[in-house]
Amino acid sequence: MNPPEDQILQPDSPIGVFDSGIGGLTVVRQLINLLPQENIIYFGDTARVPYGNKSQDVVREYAVQDTRFLLSKKVKIIVVACNTASAVAMDVVSARSTVPAIGVIEPTARKAVKLSGTRGVGVIGTLSTINSCAYSTALMSLGKNISVMAQACPLFVPLAEEGLFDHPATNIIASDYLSQFVGKIDVMILGCTHYPLLRDAIARVLGSEVKLVDAGEATAKAVKELLSLTKMLNQQKSKPRYEFYVSDFPQKFNEIAERFLGRKLEFARKVQVYSDGIIAPQ
Question: Known catalytic residue: 133?
Answer without folding.
Answer: no
